[in-house]
Design goal:
single chain, 67 residues
């Protein structure tokens, strides 16, 4: 239990950034109609299932169409 208490100052900002990134990714997916590959449903699944930074990063690298 002590180890978790020592790590909290590092974990809390990481979780906050993770949820902000996920929220921005979901907003971007839901408000745009065109994607480089795949469709809206595919990218929602990738972003939500791969929530630990991986899903949103994959979306912004592969799925987001340049404006």
């Amino acid at each position: 239990m002590e180890m978790i208490a020592e790590m909290l100052p590092f974990l809390i900002p990481l979780f906050v950034v993770e949820f902000i990134l996920l929220g921005y990714t979901l907003w971007h997916i839901l408000t745009h109609k065109n994607y480089n590959c795949g469709n809206r449903t595919l990218w929602l699944i990738v972003a939500i299932v791969g929530m630990n930074f991986i899903g949103p990063i994959i979306y912004f690298i592969l799925g987001k169409e340049e404006e």
